[in-house]
Specification:
single chain, 121 residues, alpha/beta, 2,3-Dihydroxybiphenyl 1,2-Dioxygenase, domain 1, four-stranded mixed sheet
């Protein structure tokens, strides 16, 4: 029934602060922006899917215990070093596994994000 992931969306408390984190710290490029006084959504196309941040509904509110998205990176060690230099909170230090390396960070709202690198075969 399900063919692919359409998008992942994190509800945020402060869209301006969240946008600065995802664009200035993680380097994402906005592909769609909608902002008004009552709601706002920003979308980032990443590979074959879309990651979005937004606010505007009581039924769509921030929870740091919600979903977690994993971002694949080209250079794992360099990315982790840069994130630490930018003061990003690391909640799971980098770990190596048989198929990948990963670490977990927090965005400004306390949402969990995984920084991930698949190992080459």
């Amino acid at each position: 029934m399900i063919k692919e992931m359409a998008f992942v969306c994190y509800p945020v408390k402060d869209l301006k602060k969240a946008r600065a984190f995802y664009e200035d710290v993680l380097g994402l490029k906005a592909t769609s922006v909608f902002e008004s006084e009552k709601m706002g959504f920003i979308e980032y196309d990443i590979g074959a899917t879309t990651f979005a941040i937004g606010f505007g509904s009581e039924k769509f509110s921030h929870s740091k215990d919600g979903a977690c998205v994993a971002f694949e990176v080209d250079d794992f060690k360099k990315t982790i070093t840069e994130l630490k230099q930018k003061g990003v909170k690391i909640i799971m230090e980098p770990e190596d596994y048989p198929t990948c390396s990963m670490a977990m960070i927090e965005d400004p709202d306390g949402s969990k994000l995984v920084i991930h690198k698949r190992k080459e075969n």
